[in-house]
Design a protein that fits this description.
The protein has four helices and no strands. With 94 residues, it is an all-alpha fold. It folds into two domains: 1-49; 60-94. It is elongated and about 65 Å long.
């Protein structure tokens, strides 16, 4: 992706809000501006066709139940389909 240098002028309040957003996201102000442009101005132009934008959306210290028990969960769903009922509801371990 080729980047085009751009200069913008912000009020003190706008600059402070942008700086706070960058600090909270542990990111740069430039990255925040790019993200806002993509999310709010380009969203309708390029609708997502896959789920790659969800990568990293949830950060957990260890794999989730689905990640560690994928095969077991899929097998339970398969058995539920064969037997004509839903698999038992499970509460996520904490």
């Amino acid at each position: 992706m080729k980047l085009k240098p751009t200069q913008i002028y912000l009020t003190e309040a706008e600059h402070a809000a942008l700086q706070r957003a960058a600090d909270q996201a542990d990111s740069s102000m430039t990255a925040i501006v790019r993200e806002l442009v993509e999310r709010h101005l380009m969203a309708d132009e390029n609708p997502p066709t896959d789920l790659t934008d969800l990568i990293g959306a949830i950060r957990t210290p260890k794999p989730t139940d689905v990640a560690t028990d994928r095969d077991r969960l899929l097998y339970e769903d398969l058995l539920a389909d064969v037997h004509g009922h839903e698999r038992p509801l499970r509460v996520a371990e904490q």
